[in-house]
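Quick illustration for those who missed Monday's session on complexes.
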Amino acid sequence: MNKYALLTCIFIMILVVNVISQTNEQKLERFDGKLKKIADEWYLNTGEDFFKLELAPEDFLKDKEIVLESKMDFSCTGILDGEEIIIYNISISDEVIEIREEEGKPLWDTKPDKDIYIVDADKCIGCRLCVKPCPTNAIRMVEGIAVIDMNKCIACGICIEGDGKRYKGCPVDAIFIKK
Ligand code: SF4
Ligand code: SF4
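Prediction with iron/sulfur cluster bound:
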């Protein structure tokens, strides 16, 4: 390989590495719009796009006196991940409230003191069998899929194991414990 061919190769390699690192780099962006709540999830309507928001747990928001309401004007800084915005901070009446550190580490306690029960929406067949046996009414159906409200769930395990009576647990193993 002559000198020019070698230099061209090196130049192309540098270009490719740059393009890859730019693609992988996640940028903090500012988003403004109106809030919308669907089931237990918050969404942001910017007028042009519709994003799901990954906020902090309700307890953390309450401690910071953050009360969210549908149609509320909402500004946040975050990283767009697919169609979800991972929130770093939010602005309420010009006051900026940090939710994550600069490196993206959440400021709330990420180790819950109870197991997190989740329904795999791809597996759930919407049979509703798990709804009634739940002792705290934590399970409800949203658009044909069972959804567990973590604020109500007491991690008793009935939805997975069964209640020892007629309910033998989810027939398609759609409910699991988040590790
Ligand atoms: S029992 Fe399983 S499949 Fe039936 S609604 Fe509950 S999670 Fe879905
Ligand atoms: S673990 Fe218990 S409280 Fe939580 S959703 Fe399942 S049945 Fe309901």
